[in-house]
Every structure is written in C-alpha cells, then in structure tokens.
Amino acid sequence: MDRSSRIYVAGHRGLVGSAICRRLREEGYSNLIVRERRELDLFDRPAVDAFFASEKPEYVFLAAAKVGGILANSTYPVEFLRDNLAIAINVMDAAHRHGVKKIEMLGSSCIYPTLAPQPIKEEYLLTGPLEPTNEWYAIAKIAGIKLAQAYWQQYGFRAISLMPTNLYGPGDQFDLKASHVLPALLRKAHEARVSNSPEMVVWGSGNPRREFMHVDDLADAAVFLMLHYDEPGIINVGVGTDITIRELAQLICRVTGFEGRLKFDASKPDGMPRKLLDVSRLSGLGWRARIGLEEGIADTYRWFQQQGALHSVAT
Ligand code: GFB
C-alpha cells in the first residue's frame, strides 16, 4: 500500500472506520474511497459487486459492522448475527472477485471462549463455549475469520484478520441501551454531576475485568498491520493490561468530576469474567499502544462535551 493506492474504508462513519480514515489521512494516503449507507447498502450483494467493479479499490479496511454493548447484543441476536455475516460475505467476495490486493477484517475479542485462560492467545479460538451474552456477534465474526482464511487457502487472496480488544474514543455510541460500558459510564457520570445526583448506576457486580484501547491506537495498529502483517492467522490488538468495571467507574468519576456513590445493579449481566488479550504476536512485530486509559477517557470526555455543546445539551 502506498500513498496513492485506492483504499476503501467500509464503515467510515463508525468509531473504528472514522479513526482509520483519520489515521490514513494523517499519514498522507490521499486516495480514500468511502460511501454513505444511503449510497451503498452493504447488505445488497449486487450493489456491493457493482461498487467494487466500478471503483476498483486496491486495499480494503472492513470496519463496517453491527456493534453494541452487552444489552444490545442479547436483545438483537438476529441483527448481530445476520448483518455481520452478510457484510463479511458481500464485501470479501466482491473484494476477491474485483482484484483487491489485500483486505483487513476487524473482528473482536468476544470471539474467544468465555472461560479462556488469560491473557488470551490467538490459538485459544474455538477451544471452548462462547459467552452467551454475545455469542451471536461472536459467531458472525468467527465465520468472517474463517471466510478470510478460506479465501487465502483456496485462492491465495490476502485477507488478514485483527481481533481488537474493547475499544472507545471520539465517535463512540453513547446511547445507554446500545453502548459499551465506557461511553455509558462516561455519560452517566456526566449527567449525574450536572444534575447533582447522589449516585450513578453501574450494571452487574463491578467485578468483571476488561481491557480498553483508545480507537486512535487501534487505527494506528490497523494501518501498521496492513503494511507489515501478511498471514492468514488472526492477530490480537490490545494494550496488554486490564481493570475491573468498578475501577473503570471510579476512574470515570475522577475524569468527569462526579463525586457521588456508585450503585451496582445486579439484575444486569456481567458477561465474560475477564477478557485480556495476549499481545505478544503484535509486540513481536514492533507495535505497541501509546494512549493511557485516563488520558484516553479525558480525550473522549472532551469530545462528548463538544457534541453536547453542538446539540445544546447542558454541559
Ligand atoms: O462493554 P460491555 O457492554 O460489553 O460491558 P462486553 C462490559 C461490562 O461492563 C459488563 C458492565 O460486565 C457490563 O455489565 N457495565 C456496567 C455496563 N455498567 C454498564 C453500562 O452502563 N453499560 C454497559 N454496556 N455495560 C462486548 C460485546 O462485551 O464486548 C460485544 O457485547 C463486543 O459483542 C465488545 O465484542 C468488545 O465487554 O461484556
């Protein structure tokens, strides 16, 4: 991939896709191809095919996906399974048939067994039962990985698959029913402070452990791996450390200035007890994350407040 390559970023409006576009532009890649959802429906196979036939991208970042937090995953199993399968099949097939040189698929750390030994190595894939709160999404992503590996094996099509840990950052989804934990707690703490509430609700026990990566770090890794990783085997992308949800909530209280109590709602699921990726394969290639968690949360909070100001929400 060079500065003038034709690069299609699928899902450029999302958290990951928008960060990859920012990163590519910063690096001087000037020939980016993007399409709004109304212009190109990735569920429409003939339309995807026609798009690849006419635009002839050389490199593809497949960051389009139906994503969401623990509640959204268990409320909309059909969308999480069907939509993600359809996107993977339509984009990968068209990319292969229309001469794409390399495609990078973005997966998720939820593909691993719910009780996988920690930190989780790439080879633990398909060694045990999946976490029930996100098995639909996980199955779609595992099928995507296998499809990429099948294209590589059968046709020599260079399709690499990255497994990022829990991501957050500017551009995230802050809807409390659909979002992941970090944006949800950021919004709750902000609103609790603004309304002088004595407490904020945190789902579950607060004991699960999660690893959080700023999306700008992920985007940096995504571009790095497009350039330097050429294997069908999956590769984890994480920061190498994790914290409990309780610790995350405390950190978010500090960043937002909310000084009230945390109230744990045991009626909500905990999900996987721990999800920390082993990143030795990635660090062996010479890449590591740079953005610390507190710094990354502060950056995301600034963005959230700017959005609020844009939409005249109290800040
Ligand atoms: O981020 P999250 O929704 O998803 O939840 P997963 C992580 C943990 O935070 C769970 C707790 O133990 C939640 O119960 N939590 C506490 C909250 N308060 C809240 C809150 O207000 N909102 C949310 N959403 N959680 C996701 C998968 O799993 O991981 C996706 O559902 C994806 O498929 C993603 O793979 C990376 O980390 O449990």
Task: Write up what this structure looks like.
- The structure is a single chain.
- The protein is α/β, with parallel strands linked by helices and 315 residues long.
- The chain has a single domain (7-314), classed as NAD(P)-binding Rossmann-like Domain (Rossmann fold, 3-Layer(aba) Sandwich), CATH 3.40.50.
- It is 43% helix and 15% strand.
- The protein is built from ten helices and 13 strands.
- It has helices spanning 15-26, 45-55, 70-75, 77-97, 135-155, 181-194, 215-228, 245-256, 280-284, 293-310; strands at 7-10, 32-33, 59-62, 102-106, 159-164, 166-168, 199-203, 209-210, 212-214, 235-237, 243-244, 261-265, 274-275.
- The radius of gyration is 19 Å and the shape is globular.
- The protein starts with 6 loop residues before the first strand and ends in a 5-residue tail after the last helix.
- It binds guanosine-5'-diphosphate-beta-L-fucopyranose.
- Guanosine-5'-diphosphate-beta-L-fucopyranose is lined by residues 69-71, 73, 108-110, 134, 137, 166, 179-181, 184-185, 202-204, 208, 210, 245, 268-272.
Detail the topology: elements first, then pairings:
Layout: E1 7-10, H1 15-26, E2 32-33, H2 45-55, E3 59-62, H3 70-75, H4 77-97, E4 102-106, H5 135-155, E5 159-164, E6 166-168, H6 181-194, E7 199-203, E8 209-210, E9 212-214, H7 215-228, E10 235-237, E11 243-244, H8 245-256, E12 261-265, E13 274-275, H9 280-284, H10 293-310
Parallel strand pairs: 1-2, 1-3, 3-4, 4-5, 5-10, 6-9, 7-12, 8-13
Antiparallel strand pairs: 8-11
Helix pairs in contact: 1-7, 2-4, 4-5, 6-8, 6-10, 8-10
The structure holds guanosine-5'-diphosphate-beta-L-fucopyranose (GFB).
Guanosine-5'-diphosphate-beta-L-fucopyranose binds at residues 69-71, 73, 108-110, 134, 137, 166, 179-181, 184-185, 202-204, 208, 210, 245, 268-272.
